[in-house]
Specification:
This protein is of the alpha+beta class. Helices cover about 20% and strands about 35% of the residues.
Length: about 220
């Protein structure tokens, strides 16, 4: 299953791949060159298809935990000052996505969307310290029953050139459902109340919709 945001790119990639395979066979005489070009075209198509994959995942919805919104590696767990919305210290958990990860963004918790804003910006590498302040990004705040307001931020990376965000202020959202997409490399930051019990460690592999990031009794 593929994400709807990849529909056009997948169709164009398939057409290009088919054209390259046919033209190489028609106009080139060297067998190994022809096969090399055709194999390269097929590998490119496979990479595009795997990037836009959207695996179905059964999510056990609960107000008692915050789940990973994306697949990737946990690269930050620390107290930081959040300057855009809370304007106070929060507990930040960041997940870095490589180009081979699933790039679907899922809602980390159920609740009411209180804030949703898009920021154009630079395309620093996603792990750069200033990426969360200077890169293209979106900021979304969900008001939850047990955790209060939590914030997540989609951040474009050096390869990413488009962030898709479905969250709109006033929406009621359900944990684990589709919240958007980040194309070609990125990071997601989650900002939780101080004192929140964190269930992951640095360098842990997170699975969107499955891994429990934080819990509250």
């Amino acid at each position: 299953m593929f994400h709807k945001e990849g529909g056009r790119i997948i169709l164009v990639s398939m057409a290009l791949c088919l054209a390259v395979v046919i033209l190489a066979d028609k106009f080139l005489d060297n067998y190994w060159i022809v096969k090399g070009i055709q194999v390269f075209a097929l590998i490119f198509l496979v990479l595009v298809l795997q990037f836009f994959r959207n695996p179905k995942r059964a999510v056990q919805v609960s107000d008692h935990y915050v789940i990973a919104p994306v697949d990737g590696k946990v690269v930050v767990i620390e107290e930081v000052y959040e300057p855009e919305y809370f304007k106070e210290k929060r507990l930040q958990v960041s997940i870095f996505m490589s180009p081979i990860n699933v790039h679907v963004t899922r809602y980390a918790a159920s609740g009411l969307i209180k804030f949703s804003k898009y920021h154009p910006g630079k395309y620093l590498v996603a792990w750069h310290p200033k990426a969360s302040e200077e890169n293209e990004r979106t900021t979304i705040v969900i008001e939850t029953k047990l955790f209060g307001e939590i914030l997540y931020r989609q951040i474009a990376g050096a390869l990413a050139r488009r962030i898709v965000n479905y969250a709109k202020e006033g929406m009621q959202v359900v944990q684990g459902t589709d919240a958007g997409f980040i194309k070609f490399g990125s990071r997601v930051d989650i900002f939780l109340p101080l004192g929140t019990e964190i269930n992951v460690k640095l360098n842990d592999k997170a699975i969107g919709g499955k891994t429990i990031i934080a819990t509250k009794a």
